[in-house]
Prior knowledge:
By secondary structure, the protein is mainly α. The protein has helices at residues 18-29, 36-50, 56-63, 66-82; strands at 3-4, 7-8. It is built from four helices and two strands, in the order E-E-H-H-H-H.
Amino acid sequence: MPTIRGKPKEQISYKCPHDLFQKINTLIDQGKYASRNDLITEALRLFFENRNHIPHDAIKDWLISDEGEKWMKDLIRDVLNED
């Protein structure tokens, strides 16, 4: 089993949607991450560290609020403009 920074690693297989794959490669090309593994590891760490901090009902309530709806529209616009 390979190790990185002293921790044993397990290998998994993941089929990534093309749009996310392009965004991952862009961040690597910009030098923000050394590899796909580094980016995915950080994303998973953030997910597990933060997933229980905000109750799901609070997220749903905020997303259906006027502020949440505006945020989602702005996010979608920004994502579409990145391509």
